[in-house]
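Researcher: Can you fold this with nicotinamide-adenine-dinucleotide in place?
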Amino acid sequence: MNDSTAVADKTATQNPQHLHSRVFEELEIVRDPSNLYHQTIEQVLIAAQHVGLKHHQQIILAQPKNEIMVHFPVLMDNGHHQLFKGYRVQHNNALGPYKGGIRFHPHVSLDDVKSLAVLMTCKCSLVRVPFGGGKGGVKCNPRELSRDELMRVTRRFCSAISNQIGPDYDIPAPDVGTNAQVMAWFADTYQQMMPEHTRQDTARIVTGKPVEMGGSVGRDKATGQGLVDVLDEMLPELGIDISKMTFTLIGFGNVGGWTGRLLAERGAKLTAVLDHTGAIHNANGLNAIKLTAYVEKTGGVGGFAGAETITQEDFYGLDVDLLVPAALEQMITATEASIIGAKVVAEGANAPTTPEGDEVLLQRGVEILPAILCNAGGVTVSYFEWVQNKCSVTWSPEEVDQKLNQHMVLAARRVKLARHKYECNMRTASYCAALEAIGRVYDLRGVFP
Ligand code: NAD
């Protein structure tokens, strides 16, 4: 069907358990196949074998450098105090300051945050931005918090971890359940805690800020734009013309919404969307602009007038060129993978496909464009924001778009080269391309003392 069948896939014939069991044993990790962190490390270690990463480097990457857990009380609107749990995981800073989003979600857990931090280390390396990997989160449901409660949760979380982060040390950003407004509160809180004369410079403590507060133009659409840049590089070789293709989305938040609008602008037809409120379908095409306005008003796609409601099963089975999962982790298991009707899955979300889902898709000849490549546009423009703040300059939208495109296209080519060099699937190739750069740095600098 596509390029994937032309390359013998050595990854598929190796026993992954054998490859990484030594590292797991040495670190006393009791392997749980459903644990997202274990899944992610296993995938990274498969790539580590391909590139010949030294054993001590594999051990370093298999655990984060720092895992911070905090509990903090917040005054709720009803006059009571509620205790919240928050995390900041700093996985690796060999290539630069820790970098990664902050998630507000009821299911945030330490192992999930650790997994997302590993992905950030690999993602930054793959797109060659000089950052390491981190991630954070607060276990809460932002949909159930008032605006004032959301602000107080943000400010208390920021103060709880303020001694562990810094504008040149660990720089958070938005993720699921957080946005530019949350970043504005976060930056303000951090700045208030710093000596007055350093405050201007410390706005760099977060990226994804509102443009009025030093955010970069183009950051809000960056992840979607980066994904489209990757598709431009990858789809023609898979025989798909963006201007004529059909596609579906899981999630219509920041990543899903922007991807939907940008692809629609290019002539692609969005035929269905699945989110936490249900699945909607229109074979003639959904209007992405009208759907955006509807989701802003109601919170989800369910009940949108320009479409019929369908089941999740029907959604996954739709015969389209492209499916973009842009919601949560582990949504595409072997069950969904066995019915997916799309030719290509481009992962806008982090870790949306389980290893079993991966295997089924590969067996069925569905091409998977992996998350650390597809959604790296967000951290790339975050890096641009950080550089602009550091230099007290502002770039034009055209400059941001052009620089982003350069990073994304080169990263996509790096993955394609690694795939041929190591004769593996796209996911393993993306980790290989990332690990090559990290391994080189560890070889050069050694391990202290
Ligand atoms: P968001 O909060 O803006 O949107 C999340 C979307 O997921 C919403 O549309 C929501 O309805 C949907 N969703 C939630 N639970 C669902 C469920 N059970 N079934 C179906 N849909 C569900 O978040 P976002 O910023 O768009 O992030 C989405 C994904 O992209 C996450 O994996 C995130 O880590 C990743 N990501 C985001 C960025 C970024 O810049 N925002 C960058 C890189 C990666």
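Model: Folded with nicotinamide-adenine-dinucleotide in place. The pocket of nicotinamide-adenine-dinucleotide is lined by residues 174-177, 223, 250-256, 274-276, 300, 326-328, 348-350, 375, 378 (CB under 6 Å).
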